[in-house]
Amino acid sequence: MKKHLLLSLFTLLALTANAQKYVGGDISLLTKYETNGAKYYDKDGVAITNMLAFLKEQGLNAMRVRLFVDPANASNLEKGEGVCQDLAYVKELGKRIKEAGFSLMLDFHYSDVWADPAKQWTPKAWLGLSDTELYTKIYEYTKECLKALKDEGVVPDFIQTGNEISYGMLWGEGIFETYNETKREYKYKSSSNTYYAGSKNQTRFTNLLKKAGEACREMCPKAKIILHTERIPNTNYLDDFYKDMKNAGVDYDIIGLSYYPYYHGNFTTLESSLKQLETNYPDKDIMIVETGYYYAWQPDVKSPGADLSKTYPISPAGQQAFTKALIETLDKHPKVTGLFWWMMEACENGLDWNTKRVTDSWYNASLFNDTDTSVGTGAGYAMPALYELKSFLPSSDGISNVITGKVADNNWYSLDGHLLKNKPASKGIYINNKKKVIIK
Fold it and tell me: Hey, what long-range contacts does 90-95 have (CB within 8 A, 24 or more apart)?
C-alpha cells in the first residue's frame, strides 16, 4: 500500500511539474517610461527604483514584449500609442527581463505597426513580395531576430508567431487615413484583400505560420509556440480557427487568447470558449496572453452584455475584484497555464506631458495610477490588482497537505496544488479526499 501511495505521489508530482503556470504582463513600454522619468511607487508610497525586481517580489514570473519589423514607418498616431519596439529595443529589455529571472514571451507582430484583427499590414520593406517570397521572408526574419536575441543571451521561453491573428496576417499595404476618437476606430485604405476567413486564403496563411514556426523550432527548440486569437465571443469561429490549424498541420504548442470583458463578454462567455477549446484540443495548453480592466474612465463597452461595472466598479477596488474573479474562473480550467496583463506598466506620473509623455492618451487599465489621486490611490502608486495576480500561481500548500494527509475531505485541488472554490465542472484530474479523481 505504501509503495503504491508513493508511486502515486511521484506520478502526481511529475504531472505537477508539467503544469507549470505563468503570470505577469506585457511591459513593452517599460524602457520608455523609465527613460522619460516616470515615477512609480508601491501601494504604501515607497518609491520603486527597480521595476523588474519589484514585480518579481510580488510573485510574478513571466513578462511579455512585442516586436515590430520597423516601427519608424508607423504613423504619428500609432507611435503615440506605443509603437516603438524594434529589435534593438527588445534586445535590451529582453535581457533585463531574463536576468531578473522571468520567463520571456516574445510577441512577433510581423508588421511595422499594430497587428490585430482589424489590421495586419505587411511591413513596408516586404511590400511587393509574392506569396512564395513572403514564406521565405517570414522564415528568414524570424530566424534572424531569434539569433540576434540568442547572441545577447535572450532566449524566449514562449514565442507568438503573430499577434491576434484571428483573420490572418500580412494582408498587404494599409494606408492610414483617419482615426475616430469617439469610436476608437482606425480607417485604412487597403491595397489588397488577403484576409483569412474559413477557406479564403487559408493555404497562404497557414504556410506563413508554418515557416515562422519552422524558424522558431530551429533557433529556440525549447520555446513554446503560441497561436494568438481573440474571438472569445464567437466560440464557433474560435473552434474553427484551431481546427483549420490542426488540419493544415501547423506546428504550435499553446492556444493564446485575448480577453477584455468590455469587448469579449462576461465570464460566462469566457468559460464557454475555454470549455470548448479544452474539449476539442486536449493536447494544447491555453494562455490568456492579454487581459485588462479599468480602474477609472472606462470607454464605451463594445460587446452587448459585457459591461461588468455594476459587479466590479470602475475603481481600484473594482479592478482588484475583477482580477480575483477572473483568476477564480481560470482556476476551474486546468489547461489554462498563463495569465498576462496588458500594458501593466503604463504610468505617466512624473512626466512632462509636453515633452516627455510616452503615449498621447491615458490608459486607465494599467496596474499603476497615472496621475489621478481622486480614485483613492496616490499618483504612480501600484494598484491592488497587481498584488492579486500572484494568486493565479499555485501555492505548495495543496500538494504538501495531500502528502501529509491534511487535506479536508470536502476540498478540491488542481494537480498543481491550487485550492479550487468548488467541485470542478471541467474534464481533468483533480485531488479530493486525499485521492486523484478523474472528472469525465
Answer: 90/65, 90/66, 90/149, 91/148, 91/149, 91/152, 91/154, 92/31, 93/27, 93/28, 93/30, 93/31, 93/65, 94/65, 94/149, 94/152, 94/154, 94/156, 95/152, 95/153, 95/154
Q: Is the pLDDT of residue 312 over 90?
A: yes
Task: Supply the pLDDT for residue 289.
Answer: 98
Count the alpha carbons within 13 Å of 212 in the hemisphere toward its beta carbon.
Answer: 25
- For residue 184, with 0-12 CB atoms within 10 Å meaning exposed, 13-18 middle and 19 or more buried, which class applies? exposed
Q: Render pLDDT for 244-286 as a digit per residue (tens, 0 to 9).
A: 999 999 999 999 999 999 899 999 999 999 999 999 999 999 9
Report strand pairing: 185-190 vs 174-180.
antiparallel
- Count the neighbouring beta carbons within 10 Å of the beta carbon of residue 258: 23
Q: How many CA atoms lie within 13 A of 426 on its CB side?
A: 24
The per-residue DSSP string of 140-198 comes to HHHHHHHHHHHHTT---SEEEESSS-TT-S--S-EEEEEEETTTTEEEEEES-----BT
Question: Residue type for 62, please?
Answer: A
Lowest model confidence (mean pLDDT) among 110-114, 311-315, 431-435: 431-435
pTM of the model: 0.86
- Say if residues 394 and 416 touch (Cβ distance below 8 Å): yes
CA 299 remoteness from chain centre? 21
Beta bridge partners of 286: 255, 336
Burial 133-164 (b: 16+ CB within 10 A, else e): ebbebbbebbbebbeebeeeebbbbbbbbbbb
Alpha carbons 154 and 65: distance in angstroms, whole number: 12
DSSP 8-state assignment for residue 420? P
Question: Which pLDDT belongs to residue 3?
Answer: 46
Task: Collapse the DSSP code of 62 into the 3-class scheme (helix H, G, I; strand E, B; otherwise coil) and give the result.
Answer: strand
Quote the CA–CA distance of 301 and 381 in Å, as a whole number: 26
- Comparing 364 with 185, the larger pLDDT belongs to 364
* Backbone phi, psi, residue 235, to 5°: -60, -40
